[in-house]
Amino acid sequence: MKAKTFASGLLGTAFIFVALATASPAVANDPVALEVQVDVPPTWGVFLADDIAEAMTARVRETFRSHDYTGRIASVSAADHRTDATPRLNLRLLDWHVGRTGHVDCTFSAGLTTADGKAHALGLFTATEFTWGTRNRWQLSHAFERSAESALDRLWQKLEREGLTNALQAPPLSPTAVPMS
Predict the structure, then answer these.
(1) Beta-sheet pairing, 119-129 with 32-39
(2) What is the pLDDT of residues 103-114, one digit of tens each?
(3) Can you name the residues that pair with 179 across neighbouring β-strands?
């Protein structure tokens, strides 16, 4: 019974994240400046894994925007071939769950492949958000968001320390190039 409740809560939270991700305005004609690939551990449902990846990508968009990143961010899967001119941030989600005491843990490793093809291993990032014993769906949803955003803030700080924030921008298109949808 507890597993069924937990699974429905996790699925509901993932749907909320996806709704928030699709609500953010994006101009389709702008070229993609950064591709984000989120690798999710194996789950019981492919659709759940896709929802979790989209939710994490939405958190990347919001967190990077809070740090004044202006480029368009697109979610890609491992099956998508890398566009040579577009940097790709690869997040391997290791853990994003509610613990026994009500805390939400978010742990992932990150790597960046710049537009010139150079790979950078950025390390492991983790954050914990406490919900203090409440099982309110909205508070739980916000705890998932805040834990991911805190870990992504640490990722952004690492990118700044390494001098890689400029590498997150795709090189400008030539005047004859036409962006593909």
Answers:
(1) unpaired
(2) 899 999 999 999
(3) none
